[in-house]
Amino acid sequence: MRIIMAGFGTVGQGFAEVLHKKTDRLNRFNESVKIVAAFDSKSFVADENGLDPLELVERKKSTGSVGSEKLKSGIDVLDSVDYDVLVEVSPTNIKDGGAGLKHVEHALKNGKDVVTVNKGPLALKFSELNKLAEKKNALLRFEGSVGGAMPIINLCSENLKGERVKSIRGIFNGTCNFILSRMDKGLPFEQALKEAQQLGYAESDPSYDIDGIDTACKVVILANSIFRRNVTFSDVSITGITSVSAEAIALAAEHDMVIRLIGEVSDTVLEVSPRLIPLGHPLSVSGTLNIAQIRTDLAGPITVSGKGAGRIETASAILSDLIAIMDRRR
Amino acid sequence: MMVNADIFVRDVPGQLVGSLEPISLVDGNIVGVVHNRENIVNGRIAVNLTFEVGSAENLEKLKNIWKSRDVMISRISSVIETFPMEYLLIGDIGASQIERLIENAGKVVGLESVDVRFSSKISSKERTAMISAKVRSEDDLEKLNAFMMTACKRAKIVYIRGVGQ
Q: Does residue A192 sit in helix, strand or coil?
């Protein structure tokens, strides 16, 4: 199994480390798994005999680049190396999908399997990419794009195959949940945000998280992949958490409730908004955890929870998708 | 609907089971049974039952079966199932504005009960209000949600709703 890695940031490096760590587990397929090329925004490196994942991580850390060659375009790398699976982990671009969308499209057009956690291409062009994958008999998997290590997409589409999923609602953004949890303790919004930034949970420009954009992308992915809807990012009704005042938090607390940013999706609903959650309700979790409540017709409500972000946690989802592809291609 | 009833059954073997069986016959669901052997009146033992039945019609059927089986009904009270929802309205909200909002909501759906609380920070310009409402059906809940969303949007009030049951 020959892999090209598009993007070598936090998640990419995490995946390289996991690949090294799980060599024994992957060997059960009697097929070696090797990275034959990797590129980031500036550089690339390729070797058909396989690259050492830890050396790639080391070089990225010491030089800021994954390769020694200057990158002209990721497509050039995809065209110049033979591979089986593209692992697309470049940064999310929600405006036009960015380079990530081009990479995924290009790989699928050439019949290559793709594993991605890049929400941009999935939130903007899910339907097109899915059709393209079907047409080219390629596999497109994206478990890590929603909830990081928390299993949800494959859980619904594979383990709950016999169920009709009626709705999914959950906390899909750890940064917002951290901020709201700190506000529960009496911190004003600005201070809670600053704390999230200092701890590395929020970016210097936090709008992607606090305006509900990140959660909206995930809601779109769930709607398209699990509910078979044909929606895109612009179809989501989005309200972020910036309007949640300390007074609102206090009034909710007087009623034994907390406020959490909830993404909700069903056959008719596509919404991201702050919601009042009774204390003790499964969705009243605190901190950076992600959680989802899946309502099904036969099994009733199913709740899953896990770390929604983090290099190794997200890499674990990529690994499970990669193994699923290896299973299918055997 | 959820029903709570006090009945008296004869203090002979098989009578308790004979009083519970008709609940299943009308497609009811027994939630709780308290068999009070200390409360015996004229050779009959008091039993307190809590159960769900689908409709008032089924409850009437059950009462008739009990009568035919010599089960005495001492008290029966039904609790209508309601669907609660909370709305937190953030902004410069006045009591009269809330009153109008609830009045208009009442024209869209039948409200079983409404409770309004304001934040205690009276001096603040941004006075937050919490409306706790109960309606009779999930359909009504959807209508109420839709009404609140539109009304708050029109009045430029940020609102946060609950997640229901």
A: helix
